[in-house]
């Protein structure tokens, strides 16, 4: 029971808005100590996990490329390009990205898109550019809100799309735990099948929120013009 205190540390740390990396590391070490592991065993587990999951270091390869793209104005170019497409609003753009992100994740292609190499240098500036084309200069709260919705489109698409792919880690973890703990024979295909309606509902709900963002931007622009008069 005391091992679950690590979960409480995560909840408290996030509620206090502490550094997420620090919160996760401290809660992980605390959980391991409460579970009876020695400091040496904890370091061995961390080292083995890091060596066995080298995909976590892919950002080291992509970081220089993203830096060069930013240096030579990729964000500005993307914003100008999307600004010329008058039909494409901020909400429609993000809803389209959400659909693509969810579809590729459902096929197991979780590494194609993402925050560092797609949302920040491309999708975010394109969404802001679409809003600026329609409403002119944006305020800081409006820009931050668009950035937040751009990031959430990636999160929702990945989270609810990857469970449809039967070989993803979360599905294998669930089936392995249930089969081992309860003596059942849970088929990954069954989980993937039930994940489909969940993914559809997630898309409909979040796409609706993205289209609501367009209406919010219209109201904000109208309010600013009224004050200016």
Strand share of the residues?
A: under 5%
Query: Can you count the beta strands?
Result: 0
- Give the helix level as a range of percent: over 70%
Q: Tell me the distance between the termini.
A: 63 Å
Low-confidence stretches: none
Plain-language structure description:
The chain has 229 residues and is mainly α. It contains 10 helices and no strands. Helix 1 packs antiparallel against helix 2 (20-34), helix 6 (90-106) packs antiparallel against helix 7 (115-135) and helix 7 crosses helix 8. The longest helix has 41 residues, at 188-228. The mean pLDDT is 81.
Describe the structure concisely for a colleague:
Helix content is 79%, strand content 0%.
Layout of strands and helices, then pairs:
Layout: H1 5-15, H2 20-34, H3 39-52, H4 58-71, H5 74-83, H6 90-106, H7 115-135, H8 140-162, H9 169-182, H10 188-228
Helix pairs in contact: 1-2, 5-7, 6-7, 6-8, 6-10, 7-8, 8-10
Structure keywords:
229 residues, 0% strand, mainly alpha
């Amino acid at each position: 029971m005391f091992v679950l205190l690590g979960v409480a540390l995560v909840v408290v740390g996030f509620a206090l808005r502490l550094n997420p990396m620090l919160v996760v590391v401290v809660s992980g070490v605390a959980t391991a100590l409460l579970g009876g592991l020695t400091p040496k065993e904890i370091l061995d587990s961390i080292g083995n996990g890091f060596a066995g999951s080298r995909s976590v270091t892919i950002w080291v390869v992509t970081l220089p490329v993203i830096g060069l793209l930013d240096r030579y104005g990729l964000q500005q170019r993307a914003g100008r390009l999307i600004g010329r497409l008058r039909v494409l609003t901020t909400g429609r753009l993000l809803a389209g990205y959400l659909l693509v992100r969810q579809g590729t994740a459902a096929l197991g292609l979780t590494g194609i898109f993402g925050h560092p190499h797609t949302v920040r240098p491309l999708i975010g500036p394109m969404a802001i550019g679409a809003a600026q084309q329609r409403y002119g200069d944006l305020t800081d709260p409006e820009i931050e809100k668009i950035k937040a919705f751009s990031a959430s489109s990636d999160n929702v698409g990945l989270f609810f799309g990857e469970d449809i792919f039967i070989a993803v880690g979360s599905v294998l973890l669930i089936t392995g735990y249930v089969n081992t703990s309860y003596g059942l024979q849970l088929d990954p295909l069954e989980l993937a099948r039930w994940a489909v309606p969940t993914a559809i509902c997630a898309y409909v709900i979040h796409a609706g929120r993205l289209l609501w963002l367009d209406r919010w931007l219209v109201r904000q622009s109208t309010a600013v013009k009224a004050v200016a008069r």
